[in-house]
Protein 1
Amino acid sequence: MDYRFLGNSGFKISEITYGNWLTHGSQVEDDAATACVRAALDAGITTFDTADVYANTRAETVLGTALKGERRESLEIFTKVFGPTGPKGPNDTGLSRKHITESVEGSLRRLQTDHIDLYQAHRFDHFTPLEETMQAFADVVRAGKALYIGVSEWTADQLRAGSELARQLGFQLISNQPQYSALWRVIEGEVVPTSRELGISQVVWSPIAQGVLTGKYVPGQQAPEGSRATDDKGGKDMIARWMSDDVLGRVQDLKPVASDLGLSMAQLAVAWVLQNDNVATAIIGASKPEQVHDNAAAAGVTIPADAMATIDEALGDAVVSDPARTHDSSPKQREA
């Protein structure tokens, strides 16, 4: 496993992060989740990402239990705050001082730790003054409950405003967690250049496009039984955008590229995002330990320039690159 610095800080994380969105506490049983965490540790992964909203706090609990007994100093534990949790009351969502202050305590308890390495604003809150949010994060850092602060799916302008306030308050934003893959490149036009300027790294999610870039979905054929495309608990909806025969056919054209490089399709997809020098780590999810080992092998892989060009040519206009899609990801109304 290789490691990279996160943003303009001295904090290093593994190039592959194990994440438990859509899996722990919902799609897979706890013993399977624990087996995947053990596989991640065996593969040299030291960085783990979750969020209080995943499975309505259950994912944090499962991860905390799975990591219990590990040397805390050898782990980097990330979680997030924003989404509705608990009974979803009027203050159970957003980035208000109240919600951040109460949420960090709940996350610490569920993760069975006295500090969070990276505490992230899961989305931008259009209803809370940014000054209030940043002051609350500053207080969380000063109290030692979080060591670093990051955000997720913020636009370039939001990153710039948040970074400036953070500096005024004596801390820094060091990361942004966006969706990024060979098929979804909306951060490249504005978010990545701004992040480089501000000293912010990307912690990217969905590098294999919900599994589509593994090539297991074939045009004109039924989705494999047990795959995300057949999951009625949420996975099917998330992957729907990629399930057209045109996109799936283009992905099939990547198989010779992966074969020539001695990589699986999943490894090619994960290695592709890691070629971007502003990406610090790629988050992988898994329902089986063998998936963890396969994806983790993408660490340290260099894809030659001609292969990168072939990937671009094969995917063509199936690639989504409109920067405005980042702005669309933040809720414009409070979920109750």
Protein 2
Amino acid sequence: MPTTVNELTAENGVKVYLVGTAHFSRESQADVIKTIRSVKPNVVMVELCQNRASILSLDEELLMKEASNITFQKISHSVKENGLVQGLLQILLLNLSAHITKQLGMAPGGEFRAAFKEVKTLPGCKIQLGDRPIAVTLQRALGALNWFQRLKLAWCLITSSGSISPEDVEKCKQKDMLEEVLQEMTGEFPALSRVFVQERDIYLAHSLKMASLLSMQDFNKHQNNHSAPTVVGVVGIGHCPGIINVWGTDHNVASLLIIPPPTMVGRFLKLFIRVTFFGCLGYSFYRIARFTHGFIVSNYSYIYHI
């Protein structure tokens, strides 16, 4: 097994092989392929939600083009679907992903596409989407930050333009480098670390347990297809320590799907932004109408005197 694979055992005895990956890594794709071919699982869980499932089947070149091209249409669609603040945050995250895509010449999610292709070669094997919906994660993350922290986060995402190489990506799979990155994130934005990492560790661990139940059911129905009920989980390597840590414990997963209500300050600022926007829009129309009216009146007067 690759060194990035951890073996877990579910309560029902199902073996779970957890593959830790870097999202822009050719080596991670090879690790996923080798693991799936070695254990021949009947369920493969990937760190994706329904809203991001399209990256499993889209062409690599098309994904690279889409990932590296942030258009006004994408921004408008994101704001319309997710609201102003959350939509802009999602665009900033996409912009950071686009920056990495351009530098590495590689579309994100290659390890998930590799897993999906391998699943299609195994009779009866199923793919399971195991991550929490991205919209819930973003709303919980924003709800955990005050407005100063949101502005600081936006500034960090806007100015994140440092260079990165394939070697840097592979280093992120090393334990000491991984711990350093997580500690840096915790120091800057502890609330984000809790929402993006710790909460999703719990959610992904729960998804793996659900996959183990599905695996056992499938094994009981089709024992001739598999020597033993097994699951392969494909997740970002930053989630592996947390998943292993919470594996034998129970958590209230439903509470991780609750979206916090907006604060009084948040509602006021949201209203202020809307009023300002429509006020500026209305004033612009007023200026245009006034100019048009003056132009028509002056030309009518000129024609009348002729």
Protein 3
Amino acid sequence: MGISRNATARWEGDLKSGKGSLSTPQSGLLDGARYGFNTRFGDEKGTNPEELIAAAHAGCFTMALAAKLTEAGHPPESVDTRAEVDLSMEGGPTLSAIRLKTRAKVPGIDDQKFRAIADDAKQNCPVSKALSAVPISLEAELLG
């Protein structure tokens, strides 16, 4: 049996002057979060799909890395990840790149083993797999 999560979106009006809202009814974390043309393609306050993809990817990868480090006998003290999602406008909007940048404090592990485990987490976290059509890079730093 799997797990199912959901979110809802509502849009009113045309693309440029219209407005939208996003909600996550199960958790209630997003409840009518505002998004629109200028929150996606400009600097107006509100969210956008790319930001939400970045949050999902950072969260999924970080949990996967913690799990894989623990399985290898090196439970982390901390893992901090930033995901950057690029939206290219060439030939129409498309996700063109994702960069994962992670820093972790992991006792008793060497840099080579840490990087190998981090790369495995990048390849195999469910969000990475779902986004496999987009080039995903990883910078992994082991903190002393």
Protein 4
Amino acid sequence: MSQEEMDFNQEEELLTLYDEEGNEVLYRKMLEFHHPEFEKDYVILAEEGNFSNDDEEIELIPMINVADEDGEGGKFLPVETDDEWDMIEEVVNTQMDDPEE
């Protein structure tokens, strides 16, 4: 599957989600894409408080984006298969490795 056949959205936005204890956590959406082979939409998130100006690596959190019936909102599900993890790693490395100068 070539990267050209996939639809990418690299427009960043902030999302408020809830952790296991019910606390609000602010995340930045780093990348969103649809993968036709898996027939799923994926979103790559990073916790907003983890951004800094030095060269520390940012922990990326990939999720499956499942829209509700009217196409608005929905929910995020965890990535579960090794094939999906491998594909996401390749996409992230390809789409996000070129730092913007």
